[in-house]
Design goal:
The structure is a single chain. With 142 residues, this protein is of the alpha+beta class. Helices cover 44% and strands 15% of the residues. It has 6 helices and 4 strands, in the order βαααβαββαα. It has a 4-stranded mixed β-sheet. Strand 3 and strand 4 form a beta hairpin. The longest helix has 16 residues. The chain is globular. It starts with a strand and ends in a 5-residue tail after the last helix. 30% of the residues are buried. The C terminus is likely disordered.
């Protein structure tokens, strides 16, 4: 299995104002099928500042199983030049999940619509992520 770095990119900024803005969007959102940040729901159960115990456990199991080299969780304002350039060049919408193998470019694994379908469940998300990565290792280059 190739050693991928998985990037979970949130639809929120890390700054205090970013957190307040996200909180407002989360509280005023009337459509459960289009959450303010589906990735935030998976890792932080919405408005919590800390990752949930369920997410921490799922992430640790995922990494220890060798499914990925690491998982990087980044807010929009934390992206490095390479990641930001890829997102902008592809005109991608936050949140999303990307993967990058050593020596290769980024690949989009999940978009907001796919992330929303997990309804904040880390276990279901990780199962799907594991399957997507395994499919990529079977022929499609990630």
């Amino acid at each position: 299995m190739a050693q991928h770095t998985v990037y979970i990119l949130y639809n929120a900024d890390a700054s205090v104002m970013g957190k307040l803005s996200y909180g407002y969007r989360k509280l005023t959102n009337k459509n459960p099928d289009k959450p303010a940040c589906a990735a935030c729901d998976i890792t932080h159960a919405g408005l919590h500042l800390d990752e949930t115990a369920q997410w921490k456990s799922a992430k640790a199991d995922f990494i220890s199983s060798g499914a990925a080299k690491e998982i990087k969780q980044l807010h929009r304002d934390e992206l490095d030049k390479e990641t930001k350039g890829f997102v902008q060049s592809q005109e991608l919408q936050f949140p999303m999940v990307l993967a990058q193998s050593e020596g290769s470019g980024f690949k989009v694994l999940m978009d907001n619509q796919k992330l929303s379908g997990f309804k904040g469940d880390p276990q279901t998300f990780m199962k799907s992520l594991r399957e997507i990565l395994a499919e990529g290792d079977g022929g499609e280059r990630l």
